[in-house]
Amino acid sequence: MMSKKFIPVILVLTAASLFVAFQSQGKPDNDNPKSKYTRIIRNVGLLLEQGHYSPKPINDDFSKTVLKKFIEDIDGDKISLQSDIDGFKKSR
Q1: What residues contact residue 29 under an 8 Å CB cut-off, 6+ apart?
Q2: Closest C-alpha to 45, from 53, 36, 34, 55
Q3: Distances, alpha carbon 52 to alpha carbons 5, 46, 56, 84, in Å
Q4: Scanning 14, 15, 40, 77, which has the fewest C-beta atoms within 10 Å of its C-beta?
Q5: 0.85 exceeded by pTM
Q6: Which of 72, 68, 52 has its CA nearest to residue 60?
């Protein structure tokens, strides 16, 4: 049976091991917002495609459906300008 005085040592070693294990490998680019947002967008896309309870492929049809729902449902109070909506439609 392990002595109670070793429990804090084991906890500290486990925490340190987890900290080291989850550090990013390679050159850190956390200061570069473009790469940060690129990683975020990629991860959100992967979550939607793989982790969602009803996964759908992220493609042009999905984009058109989301834009249509945004314009009809979310912007029902018509707070977006026509120029904003035209800009969204160009991005399809």
Answers
A1: 35, 36
A2: 55
A3: 45, 9, 8, 29
A4: 77
A5: no
A6: 68
